[in-house]
Amino acid sequence: MKSMLTHEAFPGERQNLIAERLATHGRVLAGDLAQEFKVSEHSIRRDLAALADAGICKRVYGGAISVAPARGDHDAQNQQADRKNSLGLAAAALIKAGQHIFMDGGTTNASISSVIDHNLAISITTNSPAIALELEKLPLADVILLGGRLHKATGSTVGLTAIQQLSNFNFDLCFLGACAIDAIKGVTAFDMDDAEFKRTVVSRSGQIVVAATNEKLSSIAHYQVASCEELGILVVERDAPAERLAPIQAKVSNIVVAS
Fold it and tell me: Are residues 204 and 241 in the same domain?
């Protein structure tokens, strides 16, 4: 339902409502907001600037886009375990015998690694020591761990050594970690070195899979990784908000919904 705000509304009230729009839809347009709130686009641009300064959004041409929540501590991440386990089951079902797979670091990909079929004969390369330990439980899997500098925030190796080692591989399937995904900006990451590593992985992979929790949809992080068109499959939660998912569906050819 349209807001009843007029041009006399306090800017703080408008900004709260704009923040709600961003949380629901992931993206807002200055022209639409100006028409809805009956104020000038200049006023809306000031509102968006204030929200951007508060870390709620990032300004883009014509409006603003939601900023993905920063990577939390391990306790906060563990609260999402059930959701990520569902994503893991749906993503692991994509793996076929005989494939060489790259498994990027991250808690969602860790969930995937924990539910891979033990009867599959596969090769898996990862830059995550924790994921490598989980993969070692697979009796028919050949597991390769990349070396390099350990990135503390992700628990994965990045940097020149890890990137150079990637030149020796061609992956059938890559499970790419994503901090955020947006229809226009694509997959983005919070750390520059992590993003550079991920871009190299994408260049060495035949098919890219991203498993994303709801809050990562229609949001953006700081560094570019890959366009939506480069993704082969996006795995989402069964209650993924339609407002956030719909723009991405037009760009990604295959959406898998976790049960």
Answer: yes
